[in-house]
Amino acid sequence: MAASLQLCRAKTPTHSGFFNTRSPSPSPSVSSTRIQFVASTDLLSAIGGGACRRRRALRVGYQRGIRAVLEEKRTEEEEDEKESFGENVKQFTCVMKFGGSSVASAERMKEIADLIQSFEEERPVIVLSAMGKTTNKLLLAGEKAVSCGVSNAAEIEELRFIKDLHIRTLDELEVDRSIISPYLEEFEQLLKGISVMKELTPRTRDYLVSFGECMSTRIFAAYLNKIGIKARQCDAFEIGFITTDDFTNADILEATYPAVAKRLYSDWVNDPAIPIVTGFLGKGWKSGAITTLGRGGSDLTATTIGKALGLQEIQVWKDVDGVLTCDPTIYPGAEPVPYLTFDEAAELAYFGAQVLHPQSMRPAREGDIPVRVKNSYNPKAPGTLITKTRDMSKAVLTSIVLKRNVTMLDIVSTRMLGQFGFLAKVFSIFEDLGISVDVVATSEVSLSLTLDPSKLWSRELIQQELDHVVEELEKIAVVNLLQRRSIISLIGNVQRSSLILEKVFHVLRTIGVNVQMISQGASKVNISLIVNDGEAEKCVKALHQSFFESGDLSELVADGSFGNGSASLLQIETQ
Ligand SMILES: Nc1ncnc2c1ncn2[C@@H]1O[C@H](COP(=O)(O)OP(=O)(O)O)[C@@H](O)[C@H]1O
Ligand SMILES: N[C@@H](CC(=O)OP(=O)(O)O)C(=O)O
């Protein structure tokens, strides 16, 4: 019997790209040169059968020789494979993520297609969110289905809205309706199922919202193909996005990176086409069910692909001119921030700036891949470039972020001063209850902290849970629960904290607002202030004017624009 060992060396035909004729590098998977080693077992046993030392030495030497050759060849093959794998992956230059507002209609999809084509030198991977507000509508439809009764499920207003939007878009793009009709039918069936069961579990919720991204990507890929740009729709949960099974707020697992890289690469080698990937979705590693990455999770999909493929840039296309100095819905005078570090962007996102998903900076930071936030409505605007480091020599404040409806706890130890383990006990209670803490300020016997209102970004921290927290804490401390508070986070150069704080307190004193807690994070990019919900917006406006607008607050006060006390509030409110 002959043992045949085959080693393949990479050589592939070349492929042409979508926009230009740049060809990807050779691939290991298609072989035209094959080196073949055939080691006969008969020969080996013949050599090994003799008793004399010389023959044994010959046998050992021969076997070692073969092993060495094979090992060397195997390593060579692996190296070749790695090399050409890397080169091929590098055929994708960037990932471009388009959010809901960028793909809200047929017209927007056409504009995005033009935009993608305008980057002639790029070979992008595209990540899309659901069209417009589809995710919200899907969730609302699911919630209505729970209580509307089976006979009314087909009449749910949001079902009609979603069907109309998607069919209208297909018609306007002149793409065949059959591309998504199975999804629309299944969506209706699912609503009927929910109405029968009278419950919407987190797992079903994720399955329900996945229809949004599954449909938008199919429509867009079909449109690109129709206009002659070769594209391939990819469901993230089929191409290697492996997550925890925390439905509605799943975490991406490490195994995702090689799996996604391998799949995108091999698809490309087999048939080069722009991948159009569903944002926001993954596959639970235990359940095998569709999971979602938390609201706004398509940003995370994009940065994950960026890291997996080691791309040159991750582009996140929004409906604003980049990351702004504050939320434009709170203060329309917000200005784009040209540069940010990953740390600043992560802090900004974590403390509530809707513009980026809180976890999305992690893969970009790990892979050291620049993230550019751009406006799909205004592509010429430079946007925001997020990198590992930036010149901080002139930086003071970068952005102001507001997080509303926060719960604050004042916890004072009932034990004597000098008791150790108090903080450990407090935090172990939060750990046991699975509640995340945002801002903390502490002395030896007392502690003030805020609780994330959306408990890990997914669901409301309900009153029952809060009562339970207080009950547990009251075993070791006197607890004061303060609700309807806001965190104002000042993201910037905390090396200049004295300057920032001097200005902040001047502003807040001028408008008559008391700060209830203050914390400077270990991240060194964030100072957080806690104020009452009702006062938060006017604080943000006043702080923005003071830090970012030409007239310094003192000048405004001097010329009577702010006046003092209530007169100043009136001025700010009416702006
Ligand atoms: N600091 C900020 N900078 C920019 N946008 C912000 C900021 N804070 C909140 N936003 C809001 O985030 C929105 C963009 O994020 P998002 O709606 O998730 O975009 P998309 O759906 O296109 O990914 C903006 O329209 C803006 O209202
Ligand atoms: N469609 C999902 C995921 C997402 O990222 O959306 P957007 O990019 O529009 O924020 C959501 O609404 O949460």
Automatic annotation (TrEMBL):
GO terms for molecular function: aspartate kinase activity; ATP binding. InterPro entries: AceGlu_kinase-like_sf, ACT-like_dom_sf, ACT_Aspartokinase, ACT_dom, AK-LysC-like, AK1_ACT_1, Asp/Glu/Uridylate_kinase, Asp_kinase. The keyword Plastid applies. Keywords: Amino-acid biosynthesis, ATP-binding, Chloroplast, Kinase, Nucleotide-binding, Plastid, Repeat, Threonine biosynthesis, Transferase, Transit peptide. Its EC number is 2.7.2.4. One of its GO terms (cellular component) is chloroplast. It is an enzyme of class 2 (transferase). It is found in: Plastid, Chloroplast. Pfam families: AA_kinase, ACT_9. SUPFAM superfamilies: ACT-like (SSF55021), Carbamate kinase-like (SSF53633). Pathway: Amino-acid biosynthesis; L-threonine biosynthesis; L-threonine from L-aspartate: step 1/5; Amino-acid biosynthesis; L-lysine biosynthesis via DAP pathway; (S)-tetrahydrodipicolinate from L-aspartate: step 1/4; Amino-acid biosynthesis; L-methionine biosynthesis via de novo pathway; L-homoserine from L-aspartate: step 1/3. Residues 411-487 form the ACT domain. GO terms for biological process: homoserine biosynthetic process; lysine biosynthetic process via diaminopimelate; threonine biosynthetic process. Involved in the first step of essential amino acids lysine, threonine, methionine and isoleucine synthesis via the aspartate-family pathway. Belongs to the aspartokinase family. NCBIfam families: asp_kinases. This is aspartate kinase. It comes from Theobroma cacao (Cacao).
